[in-house]
Design a protein that fits this description.
With 150 residues, the chain is mainly α. The chain has a single domain, classed as Orthogonal Bundle (MetI-like fold). The chain is built from 7 helices and no strands. It starts with a helix and ends with a helix.
Length: 150
């Protein structure tokens, strides 16, 4: 499933979903979600494959339950990497919304395309400013979350 969802680009997902749903934010959000589900799933699977088995074995040997093994042996190892993967993909999604919106899949891209077609240059400048501020805010939030996880 991960291969299928991440193998098809967001733009293609958006165009396919526009046949099912009316133009708007829903097809764009679904396209970004479907594509990034495959990417985040694959990245998180690789994190789990690279786990250090020694803490898990030590917990099992000492008689810990499965829930305790997950809580004390697995989560402390994978949580920082999971958080990094999810925040990184969130940053990419924010940047990709403008591209997906160009096919009438909603978001800032749709507004940007409409403003460009009507030659509303002040609206274009405002949309680009909001877009840049949004990307900066997401990067700052991501950096703060990564510092907390480590």
């Amino acid at each position: 499933m991960y291969i299928l969802t991440r193998g098809i680009p967001e733009l293609v997902w958006a165009m396919l979903l526009l046949f099912v749903f009316a133009p708007g934010m829903l097809p764009g959000a679904l396209a970004l979600g479907i594509h990034n589900l495959g990417i985040v799933g694959r990245l998180c699977a690789e994190v789990v494959e690279d786990l250090n088995p020694r803490p898990i074995q030590a917990l099992r040997t000492s008689g810990a339950t499965s829930a305790q093994v997950v809580l004390y042996g697995v989560l402390p190892q994978v949580l920082p990497q999971f958080l990094t993967c999810v925040v990184y993909r969130w940053e990419v999604i924010i940047r990709t919304t403008i591209v997906v919106g160009f096919v009438s899949a909603g978001g800032l891209g749709r507004e940007f395309r409409l403003a460009m077609s009507y030659f509303h240059y002040t609206d274009i400048a405002l949309i680009l400013l909001v877009y840049v501020l949004l990307v900066i805010a997401v990067n700052l939030i991501g950096a703060g979350l990564r510092r907390l996880a480590v």
